[in-house]
Amino acid sequence: MSKRLNTAVLAIAILMVIFSPLGLMYGQTLGPRAEQEMPAHRGAEMHIRVIDEQTGDEVDGVQVFLNQTAHDMLLGVRIDRRVWDDTPAKGPFGGPHLAVVKGVTNQRLEITDLPEGAVVVQMVPEMSRFVGEGMLTGVPSKLIGEQAVVLPRGDAMLPGQVYTFQVNQPVEVYLFVQEIGGFKLENSWKPTVKRATWTKGEQHFRDRMYRKSFETGQVEIPGHVGTMDVVAKLDVATRQSYRDAVMKYGQCVLISVESAQHDGVMNWLHESGVAFVIDDPTQHVRLTDLKDLQWGGGEEYREKLLAIDLSKHKIGQIITELDQVAEVDQQVVIRQIILSEKNGSDRAQQLQALLAALYGHRAVNGIFFGEIWSVLANRDQLAVLDLSWTETDSGKVWFDHIGDRWSGSAMLEVKSRRDGEPTGSLSWMPYGRYQYECLQDGVIVGKGTQLFQVDETEMVLKIEHSADVVE
């Protein structure tokens, strides 16, 4: 028990529940349906009794602290087995993608003989990055208004070929290269101190600029191999940071079939006590097919895994389809969430609304947010942490929900049952696993772990022998 709890909390002798009301999220109501269903399906009124472990008698005058450590439903993240595998695995990295061409004479610059697919654009303060999704900002003022050659190279995991074009005068070329993966240019390209920033959804990246002078005639832009050995570049500390983040942002994890056969992954899961669900492709279902599914029963039944794509379906349609599942008393697990909004704050608000709707629906038995680290995330996956291990906007929303808004923590003083009243009551607490600590006169007399399961209304806590037994 921390010093702050010992000095401040123990002086309070009245019930005080310290979780945020689930009907309010970021100042917005969830709507009548969500407000009604969330308490009904995710928790209940909790009555607490404290029992002397030796005598079996009820004990009076005990202060109880509860902290939820796991939910009754599955709330977690996807993990990447490459973090447990010393075999190098390929991942994307930055390569040349934008070449700003600055003439050094007063004559009009002409750029000709472009390769197929290349375009010439004029640099402006904020513009499309032309490679995948992304808005380029923070362009140095000296380059605004200059011409640039862009050759989209497609998937970042594929090689980019060397290409050339012609200029009618001596030029300086500024090459934009994403700062990821340790990509190296030949020594004739000189790194500058200038950086350009760009965004993709809610993630923020930087391009470093390299400069090289060319005479009149051919300009050659270097290629790149398209991949790097991601895992080979992860040191021991980085791998540990990843695993620590898994423990913080997920109470369980979603693993691939391959990961389930990986000794390193499975040993860590068992040693750390993290629950897991296997992302079995044979159990994947589409939203619009839910009403036509033949649901199994008994031992043959395995929960269906559903991906939700808000670029294809509105939240209202998703709820309607899930109602079909609830009508036959079945449940699905949300294995992936794809948002349609591109702006970071808009994505966070969209995610917030979706999570509220899913959490309050009785047909949903689990929600897996996405990857922990954006470096290892696939293109459509949400990520909790960006390249620099900083929470993304959506990551903040996720952690705020699983760590606060959907979690129950409480402090109360157990009262006597002499008047026929429950020893201690909490108006609503979510189902799941709780750690508890019981104190008498500032001394810890009992602590442990207890489950509060669906359809239960009482939690019985056992402590060491106490003189304050209820008569």
How would you explain this protein's 3D organization?
With 471 residues, the chain is of the alpha/beta class. Strand 29 and strand 30 form a beta hairpin. It contains eight helices and 31 strands. Helix 7 runs parallel beside helix 8. The protein folds into two domains: 1-89 and 230-471, no CATH class; 90-229, no CATH class.
Overall tally of domains: 2
- Give the distance, in angstroms, between the N- and C-terminal Cα atoms: 30 Å
β-strand percent reads 35-45%
Name the assembly state. Answer: single chain
Provide the helix percentage.
10-25%
Number of strands: 31
Number of helices: 8
Q: Looking at the structure, what is the overall shape?
A: elongated
Poorly predicted spans: 1-32, 297-301
Structural class determined from secondary elements: alpha/beta
Mean pLDDT: 79
Query: Could you tell me the radius of gyration in angstroms?
Result: 29 Å
**Sheet with most strands:** 8 strands, parallel
Chart the SSEs and their pairings:
Layout: H1 3-7, E1 16-17, E2 24-25, E3 28-29, H2 32-42, E4 43-52, E5 63-71, E6 74-78, E7 90-91, E8 96-103, E9 111-112, E10 119-122, E11 127-128, E12 135-137, E13 147-150, E14 163-167, E15 171-178, E16 190-200, E17 203-214, E18 217-221, E19 228-229, H3 236-249, E20 252-256, H4 257-260, H5 263-272, E21 275-279, E22 284-285, E23 304-309, H6 315-327, E24 332-338, H7 344-359, E25 364-373, E26 383-385, H8 393-405, E27 409-413, E28 425-430, E29 432-440, E30 443-452, E31 458-463
Parallel strand pairs: 4-31, 6-20, 6-25, 20-21, 22-23, 23-24, 24-25, 25-26
Antiparallel strand pairs: 1-27, 2-3, 4-28, 5-27, 5-29, 7-19, 8-13, 8-15, 9-14, 10-13, 11-12, 12-16, 14-18, 15-17, 16-17, 29-30
Helix pairs in contact: 7-8
